[in-house]
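User: I'm curious what two different proteins look like when written out as structure tokens. Can you demonstrate?

Assistant: Sure. I'll show them one after the other, since each token string lines up with its own sequence. Here's the first protein:
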Amino acid sequence: MSRLLDPALLVLLSACASSGSTPRGAAPGAPPTVRSTSSGLAVRLAVDSVRSTTVFQAPLDSVWSRLPAVYEALDIPVEVTDPRTWTFGNRRFTGRNLAGKRTIDLVYCGHEGAGPSAVRAMLVRLSIVSALKRLASGDTELTTEVTGTSTPMDGTSTAATRCVSNGELEQRIADALNAHLGLPNREET
């Protein structure tokens, strides 16, 4: 019976995927995809990660020296500081709160609609990393990427679900850095 339902389900999901509206949790500009696999269907609602890039009209050394204060203000403990690659951040963040919000509110982990009790029972692990690049103009490019996984803490599964940023944390890092630099409006790409 389940094999009989697969084609019908494929048609239904394909219609939803091509409806033109992006579902909650999908990355901006990334349409959902549905593909058939040997074990059924694979539905992908979002890309694995979204990188946020901002250009600051300030020298790289000046931007680099202000990143620690920005991360501290947003309650992000720093474990990665590499001045050779201009990389800064935390690849193993597991705090329940981040930047004054619940961590789970800053990412999409496939739990949307599961209810508050299900969300509280998730352990979210994030990688929050910013990288700087010196531009020929003398400006500095900041690229921040937030990725992660969530796993149920109730023991029902050990499988991790990928988490995708909703973009708010990357924006808050860029805004805080801009404020620390005392600069006017930024150019976003």
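Here's a second, unrelated protein for contrast:
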Amino acid sequence: MRHKIGYRKLNRTSEHRKALFKNMLNSLIKYEQITTTLPKAKELKPKIDKVITLGKRKNLASKKNLFTQLQSKSSVDKLVKELSQRYEKRNGGYSRVIRAGYRYGDDAPMAVIELVDRDVQAKKVDVKKKIDPAAKPSGDTKVKTEKSTSKKQAK
């Protein structure tokens, strides 16, 4: 029986676990949906709910506490400005865990953890837009590097 056992250790040291959840929190705040293993998602859910609740308090102390937990100014800004507005009327339950089958290779149970009422466009934050080849200027294609020109000059 697992009485009085507070959390899953996930076969990691305490520092590794702390860094893992900090990175996962930052990713979840940035993209609003991430795919991970089921035990990690289940452990992340209460953490993201507490962080969003802390972001809903609009004072400097809570902002500083958020920064100590997340260590990312962009995540803190998004929490305080966007997510606190979105979940202003909601009392908890800011995230959901959806089972997503089993991973090929080691058969680990996978899950998608996402924010409720998420912004679908947040997933595409880092995706660069494709530039039309017709719009490119053709004169900039012949850029030589300094190394190639210096080798030719040495011969």
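A detail about the second structure: The chain has five helices and three strands.
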